């Protein structure tokens, strides 16, 4: 299959492009962060510029499109709401319109943050209640995509993994601080279900192969507090877990409100794929194995700006 991945320098986009390139012809769209790789075709495009979407689709002729590009920095969305709307709502809608015209399959990446986290255990049938500009613009993006292309897949995700510059995921944040021997906070009252980016990539490709459509929660089958997640990272890498201070999120002074309980049900996905998504221990083990095999260093070498 010929696959187009937007946001190919981001945490999910890069890992997805690398995983998919093992079996498919992959075109990765980047904007500011150029990549130096032979694993897949890299195209530098500002998708917000007039005619850019039509041009890249015409050039690459994809059979599958996975839209990862977004303004994903939650606090940046608070300070730049217009840009957040443009990237998280308007762009996905325009892309979905053009992909639908050409007949390719589309996956649009959304977020678990569309829920307020007041109770957790959310299914795809539960009504979202976003707390931040990021979450609101992402929810609007979901709805816009499905309105113009009902056969699209909308995947609500939460992920960790190794990124281009080593600073994009919570897993890396804990790893970096623990390795440096620094004290840090781990929130005891914020729960989530993170998938390893590489595992998430494999699931998204399976969903396309099975020609699924509609809304799915694509997260780990197990959930954990952010504090406990950090402790598990420390244990697996042999770091000092006492460097992580158990703390409530209210002490962090964050600009945007965070949802405290983003545990999501994955039964719809499990039934559709015939198996549950990977567990959290599998994800952490995969994170460790990638490190041991030199994967983070390999990714860093792809950063054209660092060369």
Describe the structure.
By secondary structure, this protein is of the alpha/beta class. It has one domain (2-169, 193-223, 264-286): NAD(P)-binding Rossmann-like Domain (Rossmann fold). Helix content is 40%, strand content 17%. It has helices at 11-20, 52-60, 74-79, 81-102, 133-148, 170-179, 197-209, 226-237, 267-273, 280-292, 295-300; strands at residues 2-6, 25-30, 41-44, 64-67, 105-111, 153-157, 159-160, 184-187, 191-192, 195-196, 214-218, 224-225, 244-247. The strands form 4 sheets. A 7-stranded parallel sheet has the order 3-2-1-4-5-6-11, sandwiched between helices. Strands 7-10 form a two-stranded parallel ribbon. Helix 5 (133-148) links the parallel strand 5 and strand 6 (153-157). The two termini are 32 Å apart. The mean pLDDT is 96.
Sequence of strands across the biggest β-sheet:
3-2-1-4-5-6-11
CATH superfamily: NAD(P)-binding Rossmann-like Domain
Would you tell me the structural class of the helices and strands? alpha/beta
Count of structural domains: 1
Radius of gyration: 18 Å
* Global shape: globular
Q: How much beta, percentage-wise?
A: 15-25%
- The name CATH uses for the topology is Rossmann fold
Note the quaternary state here: single chain
> What ranges have pLDDT less than 50 throughout 5 or more consecutive residues?
none
Mean pLDDT: 96
Name given to the CATH architecture: 3-Layer(aba) Sandwich
Number of H- or I-type helical stretches: 11
Largest sheet: 7 strands, parallel
């Amino acid at each position: 299959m010929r696959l187009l991945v937007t946001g190919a320098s981001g945490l999910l986009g890069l890992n997805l492009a690398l995983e998919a390139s093992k079996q498919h012809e992959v075109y990765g769209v980047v904007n500011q962060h150029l990549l130096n790789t032979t694993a897949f075709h890299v195209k530098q495009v500002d998708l917000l510029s007039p005619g850019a979407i039509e041009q890249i689709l015409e050039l690459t002729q994809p059979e599958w499109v996975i839209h990862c590009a977004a303004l994903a920095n939650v606090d940046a969305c608070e300070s730049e709401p217009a840009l957040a709307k443009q990237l998280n709502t308007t762009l996905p809608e325009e892309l979905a319109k053009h992909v639908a015209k050409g007949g390719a399959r589309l996956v649009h990446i959304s977020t678990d943050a569309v829920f307020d986290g007041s109770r957790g255990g959310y299914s795809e049938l539960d009504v979202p209640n976003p707390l931040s500009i990021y979450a609101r613009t992402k929810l609007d993006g979901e709805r816009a995509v499905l309105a113009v292309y009902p056969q699209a897949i909308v995947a609500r995700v939460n992920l960790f993994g190794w990124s281009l510059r080593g600073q994009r995921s919570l897993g890396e944040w804990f790893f970096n601080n623990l390795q440096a021997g620094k004290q840090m906070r781990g929130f005891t009252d914020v729960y989530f279900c993170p998938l390893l980016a590489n595992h998430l990539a494999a699931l998204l490709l399976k969903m396309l192969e099975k020609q699924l459509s509609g809304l799915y929660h694509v997260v780990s089958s197990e959930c954990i507090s952010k504090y406990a997640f950090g402790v598990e990272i420390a244990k697996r890498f042999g770091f000092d877990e006492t460097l992580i201070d158990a703390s409530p999120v209210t002490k962090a002074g964050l600009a945007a409100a965070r949802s405290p309980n983003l545990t999501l049900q994955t039964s719809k996905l499990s039934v559709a794929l015939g198996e549950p998504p990977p567990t959290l221990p599998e994800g952490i083990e995969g994170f460790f194995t990638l490190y041991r095999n030199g994967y983070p260093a390999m990714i860093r070498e792809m950063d054209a700006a660092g060369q």
